[in-house]
UniProtKB/TrEMBL annotation, chains A, B:
Quaternary state and interactors: Forms a ring-shaped head-to-tail homodimer around DNA.
UniProt organism field: Lentibacillus populi
GO molecular function (one): DNA-directed DNA polymerase activity
Domain of life: Bacteria
Name of the molecule in the record: Beta sliding clamp
Its biological purpose: Confers DNA tethering and processivity to DNA polymerases and other proteins. Acts as a clamp, forming a ring around DNA (a reaction catalyzed by the clamp-loading complex) which diffuses in an ATP-independent manner freely and bidirectionally along dsDNA. Initially characterized for its ability to contact the catalytic subunit of DNA polymerase III (Pol III), a complex, multichain enzyme responsible for most of the replicative synthesis in bacteria; Pol III exhibits 3'-5' exonuclease proofreading activity.
Gene3D superfamilies, per the entry: 3.70.10.10, DNA Polymerase III, subunit A, domain 2
Ranges where the DNA polymerase III beta sliding clamp C-terminal domain occurs: 254-376
SUPFAM superfamilies (alphabetical): DNA clamp (SSF55979)
Primary subcellular site in the record, as a coarse category: cytoplasm
UniProt KW Cytoplasm keyword: yes
Gene Ontology biological process: DNA strand elongation involved in DNA replication
Entry GO CC: cytoplasm; DNA polymerase III complex
Every DNA polymerase III beta sliding clamp central domain range: 137-251
Length: 378, 378
């Protein structure tokens, strides 16, 4: 096995594949990265058995040669040192060679690394998903679906199903929903000509977070395939496979109040910065709680009180404030998380009393919904 | 006590003074920052009893008004929350007020923080150094003296004196020396008209590291005053006081070999990058050791061997290589630390055999000296 590759190409692929490789794994060979060399190109593979990632570097693409002097073969290389080695090599090209004794040589300029490899035959084969029914959406849309929901998954293993994001495809609508039972984030997008429907697909939040780091912010399509226990995201040169979570995702639609008693419209950044300041004194406390009180003349007051330290209060002028007077307490962190993912200038917030969950949506976009359960204060 | 201050000015001063404030201190009031308000300006003070820092903001400077509406007085404010509050306030100015009950109010725009303050009378008085004999050097020179030596102090408390930098002023020469007994870094600069001499001043490495973060990279002078147990660095608006370490600093001049058997001249970056690569496989081992071997034709070979992982070798062409053949092993980390602080293109390295310390100096500057004790390998 031998090839000479453009170092920049190799760095990018190695970085992507490393996101699936853990140094703590029960299967020793999974601490390694598989390099598979074919005349048409190089495939790098990593897996921690939850996530598996393949990155492909074609030998030639659009007339540009990425890989040369190819002798076919495969090897597994220790992933711990490989990214640093590749990143710090002196020249623009890297030669990688493996001999029949599994000795790997990496050369660039005058630098030569000799590493002990492992037999690629021992690396687990990734399942190839055989489903004809796939869904295709632009990469940047997928990234925003992930970003606007994944932060709300539970980090507690007490209800494992809530550590995932529920992905549904129904009535030509793709929706992502996450909740840790104290808050909920959901976003939906229309999909044209979807040939399939599914409703109980739950992808671990960690998988989607890693996927989001790898995907470039382009309009190029991502193909999504789903089976009983796995989901595949595939772009031109990337193959990202994640296991699904077992169990039934709870029905969340009934959590969302249908009526509201107090409605306000406010500039997103004004509210975000005010809540950020109000949370400063309560930062270290478990329930970083702030209080929102409606005042007359389209004014809200945001306050927070930490008896040992002090008190903070700030008024925010809103664009519109209608309905019942309200005094409600909630987690500043949840509110900041929700407001930060909303890329719109203005939001609408709908309350149904101090003890009921409230809803935040962009004023001009009903497809995003953030729900927060208030905190009882006495 | 009351004043209105430009927020940017306050942020900068608070950041500087915070470097002396520790949340873990035996004296509770030292978790606070003292604010002293006079008609001519505001002084902020912090101290962890090792280091004390005062930052002064004049009410007016060069026709620009920094502080207004001044009512004199003093208060101690909880330092833990103060920097974040100041940084996140909405407006360009901040109003700070303390009432006789030690309640502090911070206002900016519509935001208002009410904090519990402490009595400024309870804050320890900083000793005012009364020495007429001071030394003045440009700030950027002081910064480079610190940067080129402080990394070599010992981090072990077994010989506390070695955790400091030895500062000497003799024969119109100011010198900084640090050693952890495995390596030594020293730098000297000529000083004009020094009225004082001292040789056993040892400043904690941590103090100099913090000082270096605060000092701006300018040619403005720093005044240095020394007493038996303290050293003061003073710029126009900054007063930085550190305790000195007790004990006698070891005589280091006899460590430095006077003769050499192998001398080489090499490009600093070439050697730095080669050693960086050679150290990659040994990164996790305690003695990240690399081996340097002289070859013919002005070539060095740098190698490193980690039996479990693999081997790395790289040749470096030097500018000149004279004297005995050599094969020597040393800590890659020490070599990288030394080479990184040398701001010159080329270095001269003088060896006196594989078991003796060797010296690295810039080819064109004898005032910087880095010494490394080799590692015995069998």
């Amino acid at each position: 096995m031998k090839f000479i590759i453009q170092r920049e190409q190799l760095i990018a692929s190695v970085q992507d594949v490393m996101k699936a490789i853990s140094s703590r794994t029960a299967i020793p060979i999974l601490t390694g990265m598989k390099i598979d060399v074919r005349h048409h190109g190089i495939t790098l593979t990593g897996s921690d058995s939850d996530i598996s990632i393949e990155s492909y570097i074609p030998a030639e693409e659009a007339g540009i040669v990425h890989v040369e002097n190819i002798e076919e073969g495969s090897i597994v290389i220790q992933a711990r040192y490989f990214p640093d080695i590749v990143r710090k090599l002196p020249e623009k090209t890297v030669e990688i060679e493996a001999d029949p004794n599994l000795k790997v040589t990496i050369r660039s300029g005058k630098a030569e690394f000799n590493l002990n490899g492992q037999d690629a035959e021992e690396f687990p084969h990734l399942p190839k998903l055989q489903t004809e029914n796939s869904l295709s959406i632009p990469t940047d849309i997928l990234k925003s679906l992930i970003r606007q929901t994944v932060f709300a998954v539970s980090t507690m293993e007490t209800r494992p199903i809530l550590t995932g994001v529920n992905i549904k495809l129904e009535n030509n609508t793709l929706s992502f929903t996450a909740t840790d039972s104290h808050r909920l984030a959901s976003r939906e997008v229309p999909v044209n000509n979807a040939e399939i429907e599914f409703s109980n697909v739950v992808v671990p939040g960690k998988s989607l977070t890693e996927l989001n780091k790898i995907l470039a912010d382009t309009e190029e399509p991502v193909e999504i395939n789903v089976t009983n226990n796995q989901i595949l995201f595939r772009t031109k040169h990337l193959y990202f496979l994640s296991r699904l979570l077992d169990g039934n995702y709870p029905e969340t639609s009934r959590l969302i109040p249908e009526q509201s008693k107090t409605v306000l419209y406010v500039n997103t950044k004004d509210l975000l910065h005010t809540i950020d300041r109000a949370s400063l004194l309560a930062k270290d406390e478990r329930n970083n709680v702030v209080k929102l009180t409606t005042k007359s003349n389209q004014v809200l007051e945001i306050t927070s009180n930490s008896p040992e330290i002090g008190r903070v209060a700030e008024e925010v002028t809103v664009q519109s404030l209608e309905g019942e007077e309200l005094r409600i307490s909630f987690s500043a962190k949840y509110m900041l998380d929700a407001l930060k993912t909303i890329d719109y200038d203005d939001v609408k917030i709908e309350f149904t009393g101090a003890m009921r969950p409230f809803i935040i949506r962009p004023t001009d976009d009903q497809s995003i919904l953030q729900l927060i359960v208030p905190v009882r204060t006495y």
